[in-house]
C-alpha cells in the first residue's frame, strides 16, 4: 500500500475512533498488522447516487429525499459544531452518503478529513476531493473551512432534487459539461423560474412532490453554494431549515394521502 493510501487510512481511523453520531457511519473494527483495513457497520441500501441514478430501483419519494438531506446535515453539523478539534470532511458527495434499511442517511469516508483548531476558521492545504463539489476558494486557492463541506452539501441537495450528476454532460462530451450549480443558477436567475425548475426535478417523481418544498430546498442549496463562503449558512442553520422543511413535507404527504379518494374508499371498504 502506498504512503498516500496509508495516510488516508490513518486519517479515517483517527476520526472514526473519536466521533460517534447516529448519522455518521459507525466503525466496528480495524486491522493495522500486515494489511490495513477498516470494518464498518453494514448499510443495506448503498449510497444515494445509486438510488438517484441507478437502474432497477424505485425512485426515492420526495419526503425520503428531504429526510436524507436532514440526516446527512445532522452528521456534518456534529463534526463541525460538536467536536474538538473541528473536523472538515472535504469530500462530501452523493457516493459518500449511505442509506440504512430504514432509508436514513449516514455520512461516510473520512479519509480526507482535515482538523482545524478551535478558533481557526480556515487554513490552506493541498487540493483533494471531487470536482463538481469543490467551492471556488478551495479549487483555486486550497482554502479549507467548514464552508467547503457546506458548498458540497448544497450540490448534494441539487442532486436530490434533480437526480443529475454534479457535473452534467448532456451529450457525453467533456467540452460541453456543466456544473449542476451553474445549471440551477441559470434557472433561478430567470424572472419566472417555476416552469424550468419543474423540468430540473427528477422526472421519475412525476408530479408527486410539493413544488413549494422543492423551491425551498433549491433556495437552501443556492445559499449553500454561494460563491462567497462567508455568506453560506452554517450546518447548524441548515439543519434547522431542513427540520422545518421535513415537517411541512410530512404534512403534505398526509394531505395528499387523505386527498386521494380512491385510497380512502379502499381503506374504508367502499
Automatic annotation (TrEMBL):
Q: Which organism is it from?
A: Nicotiana tabacum
Q: How does it sit in the membrane?
A: Single-pass membrane protein
Where is the protein found, in the record's own terms?
Cell membrane
Q: What is its main location?
A: membrane
Q: Which GO terms describe its biological process?
A: innate immune response
- Which keywords are on file for this protein? ATP-binding, Cell membrane, Disulfide bond, Kinase, Membrane, Nucleotide-binding, Receptor, Signal, Transferase, Transmembrane, Transmembrane helix
By its UniProt entry, which PROSITE patterns does this protein fall under? PROTEIN_KINASE_DOM (PS50011), PROTEIN_KINASE_ST (PS00108)
- Could you identify this protein by its name? Chitin elicitor receptor kinase 1
Q: Which residues form the Protein kinase domain?
A: 1-245
Q: Which GO terms describe its cellular component?
A: plasma membrane
Q: Could you cite one Gene Ontology molecular function of this protein?
A: transmembrane receptor protein kinase activity
Q: Which InterPro entries match?
A: CERK1/LYK3-like, Kinase-like_dom_sf, Prot_kinase_dom, Ser-Thr/Tyr_kinase_cat_dom, Ser/Thr_kinase_AS
Q: Does the keyword Membrane apply?
A: yes
Amino acid at each position: 500500500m502506498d504512503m498516500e493510501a496509508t495516510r488516508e487510512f490513518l486519517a479515517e481511523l483517527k476520526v472514526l475512533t473519536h466521533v460517534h453520531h447516529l448519522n455518521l457511519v459507525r466503525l466496528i473494527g480495524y486491522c493495522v498488522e500486515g494489511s490495513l483495513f477498516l470494518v464498518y457497520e453494514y448499510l443495506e441500501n448503498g449510497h444515494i447516487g445509486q438510488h438517484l441514478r441507478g437502474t432497477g430501483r424505485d425512485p426515492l419519494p420526495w419526503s425520503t429525499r428531504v429526510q436524507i438531506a436532514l440526516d446527512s446535515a445532522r452528521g456534518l453539523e456534529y463534526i463541525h459544531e460538536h467536536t474538538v478539534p473541528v473536523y472538515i470532511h472535504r469530500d462530501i458527495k452523493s457516493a459518500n452518503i449511505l442509506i440504512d434499511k430504514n432509508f436514513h442517511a449516514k455520512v461516510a469516508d473520512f479519509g480526507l478529513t482535515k482538523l482545524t483548531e478551535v478558533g481557526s476558521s480556515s487554513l490552506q492545504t493541498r487540493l483533494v476531493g471531487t470536482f463538481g463539489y469543490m467551492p471556488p476558494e478551495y479549487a483555486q486557492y486550497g482554502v479549507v473551512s467548514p464552508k467547503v463541506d457546506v458548498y458540497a452539501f448544497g450540490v448534494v441537495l441539487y442532486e436530490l432534487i434533480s437526480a443529475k450528476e454534479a457535473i452534467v454532460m448532456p451529450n457525453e462530451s467533456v467540452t460541453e459539461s456543466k456544473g449542476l450549480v451553474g445549471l440551477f443558477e441559470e434557472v433561478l436567475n430567470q424572472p419566472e423560474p417555476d416552469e424550468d425548475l419543474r423540468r430540473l426535478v427528477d422526472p421519475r417523481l412525476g408530479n408527486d412532490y410539493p413544488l413549494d418544498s422543492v423551491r425551498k430546498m433549491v433556495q437552501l442549496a443556492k445559499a449553500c453554494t454561494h460563491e462567497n463562503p462567508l455568506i453560506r449558512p452554517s450546518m447548524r442553520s441548515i439543519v434547522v431549515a431542513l427540520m422545518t422543511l421535513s415537517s411541512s413535507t410530512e404534512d403534505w404527504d398526509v394531505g395528499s394521502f387523505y386527498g386521494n379518494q380512491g385510497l380512502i374508499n379502499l381503506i374504508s371498504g367502499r
